[in-house]
Design a protein that fits this description.
Layout: E1 21-27, H1 33-47, E2 52-58, H2 63-76, E3 80-83, H3 91-101, E4 105-108, E5 122-126, H4 129-146, E6 153-159, H5 165-178, E7 186-193, H6 198-210, E8 217-220, H7 223-235, E9 244-246, H8 252-259, E10 266-268, H9 271-286, E11 294-296, E12 300-302, H10 307-310
Parallel strand pairs: 1-2, 1-3, 3-4, 4-5, 5-11, 6-7, 6-8, 8-9
Antiparallel strand pairs: 10-12
Helix pairs in contact: 1-9, 2-3, 4-5, 6-7
């Protein structure tokens, strides 16, 4: 897997800590492939630093639980807090809790609703979602043209959790690309959420197929839903050569699906790099150092042609 250097103030890693530093981490959900890679990235990076301890909690996709975890971190007097938000619309309250306690806070991966108004001592580490769905849909558009389907192609869209800013932006990216002259031949015939889930992606695709929905492409907000769609398509006896399927994240399972000829497009999001960047930012803020409020790790398009670079 490729590794990327952050092109911001975080490009140079922090050195060993002079004294013990404890970071409280609240993850939206442990039971998620992408977030597991992100969490592991944090843990592996912190393990290489002297005196740095992570206390990682699972919010189990519950906003109230996550707010309680942040309150507990404040009560414990941690040196910094990292949050992967359950609901990105709830981040104002999280920011206020940390700011009132004078504890630095770093959001990771999921864009807080108050991104442009973060208090001093707070930052956001992720990848720019304007790139993700754009790269994905542009490539699907190119593939449809290549197959001669540029005079009325039909697509279905699988959305992530709508309380998540990434799902909303990735979906808007799809519509923005289709609105361009080059890709305006694509018609979205169905668009529903499958909650980032492989199982729900399979169920949604099964429902569409049972309802007789006809389509040439599946555009999914993430790889897990795309893999679920692939499973349902294959179960229904549909040849994968007959439909273009695209996801986002370039997870290990997605790369395996691409190698098998089932997944046509994904977009690499460096989960481990985001995790490392979040710990780095939290430590810098805890030490009173300056950190950019927005730290972006680039997305990259992954296709069968460059698959070997990412496996």
């Amino acid at each position: 897997m490729k590794k990327f250097l952050l092109s911001t103030a975080l490009a140079v890693g922090v050195g060993g800590a002079a004294s013990a530093e404890n970071i409280g981490v609240s993850m939206a959900l442990f039971d998620d492939n992408f977030l597991t890679v992100l969490r592991n990235g944090m843990q592996e990076y912190a393990a290489g630093l002297d005196g740095v301890t992570l206390q990682i909690e699972d919010a189990q996709n519950d906003v109230g639980r996550q707010l309680n975890q942040i309150q507990n971190f404040v009560a414990l007097g941690v040196d910094a807090i990292i949050v992967n938000p359950v609901d990105t619309d709830a981040t104002v309250a999280m920011s206020n809790l940390a700011a009132q306690a004078g504890i630095p806070l770093v959001y990771v991966n999921r864009q807080p609703v108050n991104l442009d108004d973060l208090p001093e001592g707070q930052a956001f580490v992720a990848s720019d979602e304007l790139e993700s769905g754009t790269l994905q849909t542009q490539e699907i558009c190119r593939l449809l043209r290549e197959e001669g389907k540029d005079s009325g192609a039909r697509a279905v869209v699988m959305m992530g959790e709508l309380s998540n800013q990434a799902a909303r932006i990735r979906t808007q990216d799809i519509h923005d690309v289709i609105a361009t002259d080059e890709c305006s031949f694509i018609e979205i015939v169905e668009q529903q959420t499958a909650m980032w889930s492989r199982t729900q992606g399979a169920d949604l695709m099964t429902n569409w197929l049972s309802a007789g929905v006809q389509f040439d492409a599946v555009i999914s907000n993430n790889d897990e839903m795309a893999i679920g769609a692939i499973q349902a398509l294959k179960t229904s006896g549909i040849a994968m050569d007959d439909v273009i399927v695209g996801g986002i994240d370039a997870t290990a399972d997605a790369l395996a699906a691409m190698a098998a000829g089932d997944l046509d497009v994904t977009v690499f999001q460096n989960a481990a790099g985001q995790g490392e960047g979040a710990v780095d930012a939290a430590l810098r803020l805890a030490r009173g150092e300056e950190v950019d409020s927005k730290v972006y790790v680039p997305f990259e398009l992954v296709t069968p042609e460059n698959l070997a670079d990412y496996r």
